[in-house]
Amino acid sequence: MFNPEDLAKTLENLQENFKNAQEENKNLTFSAKSGGGLVSVSANGEGEIIDISIDDSLLEDKESLQILLMSAINDVFKSVEGNKKKMAMGMLGNLGNFPFKG
Question: pTM to 2 decimals?
Answer without folding.
Answer: 0.73
